[in-house]
Amino acid sequence: MKKVLIANRGEIAVRIIRACRELDIATVAVYSAADKTALHAQIADEALCIGGAASKDSYLNEDAIITACKITGADALHPGFGFLSENAEFAKKCGENGIKFIGPSADCINMLGDKARAKETMKAAGVPVIPGSEGAVKSLEDAKIIAEKSGYPVMIKAAAGGGGRGIRRVDNPEDLERQIIDAKAEAKNYFGNDDYYIEKFIINPKHIEFQILADEHGNVVHLFERDCSMQRRNQKVLEETPSPVMTPELREKMGTAAVNAAKAAGYENAGTIEFLLSSSGEFYFMEMNTRIQVEHPVTEMLTGIDLVQMQLKIAAGEKLPSPQEAIKMHGAAIECRINAEEPERDFRPCPGTINALHIPGGPGVRIDSAVYQGYTIPPYYDSMIAKLIVHAPTRHEAIMKMRRSLAEFIVDGVKTNIDFQLSLITDPVFERGDYTIAYLSEKMK
């Protein structure tokens, strides 16, 4: 692997460029007409404009991206997260054009992207799954029978879903048909596929995910858990590791299940197994994300392992450097997602020009970002402008470090959620660690 094209933008594109540079791999950035002054387009070895401002004309333009690889001689492609990162057809197209897709195979992405098929695979491998339908639901009559058998409340979920789309909670039989219609319509609009499945709704669970690495030689390890339970509208707001509710025994069970899940899927590269953890300690497979995660830095801070460099090395055919028992946890890490948005106006995105910028620093403080003073945030993409990550010997010390860092973070010219994040990190419920995925929604009512 000599040259990698990064088919993404923003902080993750910058993150990948840095990882490549440290491995002495040349980089190619692609950018839209709206991203001409973007940081990733300025720091890569080469940069090409691939289309208009709209994502469909640029970062989702498969043919333009493949052409950019050919023009520059890039022999590999890193998709980052979002955009084409979990698009099986694009991964296949890369392979057909002699370009190494840095991620799992197209077949693996296709299987795991279908939530119903993924659930069937996990169940066959002995990984605990949430009670519900066996695959996609075929009819309303079947849905009624499955919901009744599972026991209300249940969740209607898009088979091809993600990002909280195509999901509906149903508390009683009278609402079932209407919620199915709504979920199917949203799924069709966002994913082009209105298949759905039904799961038992686990009341007030924790959202716990395990980072895994799998090489092309059959070796699979996990890098412990991330607690992603602080969520708003099914979207993660902040993440931490280790989870404050985790015990060594439960970590061993969930970690083993995560490794078994990856093996059952024939997985290669970095991925994440997501679980729901009930208040009584039972855990259930929810889905597998076949890409690097937004929240991967907390795992890097905890373990000292560079996950993006590991992705590159695995894609180059290298074996994992360490067995499971050699991977250790050190201290605690927390990540806050900093968005250009207005929390007081229902978190409305707030594009615009950054007039002044001061980022926090000090030992154990990391900023992953692509913004700079004078940069104009375009209105066409996700509103996340930075990730603030802290690491400390204990969870309490990490919380105090995050409080201090958020208080130092200044962005002038656009509205941000920094004060909102500060309110969360100082919340006594968060400090105790007993929050669930329902907490933030209840707090904001």
Fold and architecture overview:
With 445 residues, this protein is α+β, with helices and mostly antiparallel strands. It folds into 3 domains: 100 residues, Rossmann fold (3-Layer(aba) Sandwich); 70 residues, ATP-grasp fold, A domain (Dna Ligase, domain 1, 2-Layer Sandwich), CATH 3.30.1490.20; 238 residues, ATP-grasp fold, B domain (D-amino Acid Aminotransferase, Chain A, domain 1). Helix content is 33%, strand content 26%. It has 15 helices and 22 strands. Strands 13-12-9-10-11-14-21-19 form an 8-stranded antiparallel β-sheet, sandwiched between helices. It has a 5-stranded parallel β-sheet with strand order 3-2-1-4-5. A hairpin with an 8-residue loop joins strand 6 and strand 7. Helix 12 runs antiparallel to helix 13. The longest helix is centred in the middle third of the chain and has 17 residues.
List keywords for this structure.
5-stranded parallel beta sheet; 445 residues; Dna Ligase, domain 1; Rossmann fold; 3 domains; 15 helices; globular; alpha+beta; 8-stranded antiparallel beta sheet; 33% helix; D-amino Acid Aminotransferase, Chain A, domain 1
- The whole-number mean of residue pLDDT values reads 95
Strand order of the largest sheet: 13-12-9-10-11-14-21-19
List segments where confidence is low: pLDDT < 50 over at least 5 consecutive residues. Answer: none
Percent strand equals 25-35%
- The rounded Rg comes to 21 Å
What is the count of distinct domains?
Answer: 3
Task: Provide a count of the helices.
Answer: 15
Q: Report the CATH C-level class of the largest domain.
A: Alpha Beta
Number of strands: 22
Class per helix and strand makeup: alpha+beta
The H-level CATH homologous superfamily of the largest domain, spelled out, is: ATP-grasp fold, B domain
How far apart the termini lie comes to: 51 Å
Helix amount: 25-40%
Shape: globular
Name of the CATH architecture of the largest domain: 2-Layer Sandwich
CATH fold topology of the largest domain: D-amino Acid Aminotransferase, Chain A, domain 1
Biggest pleated sheet: 8 strands, antiparallel
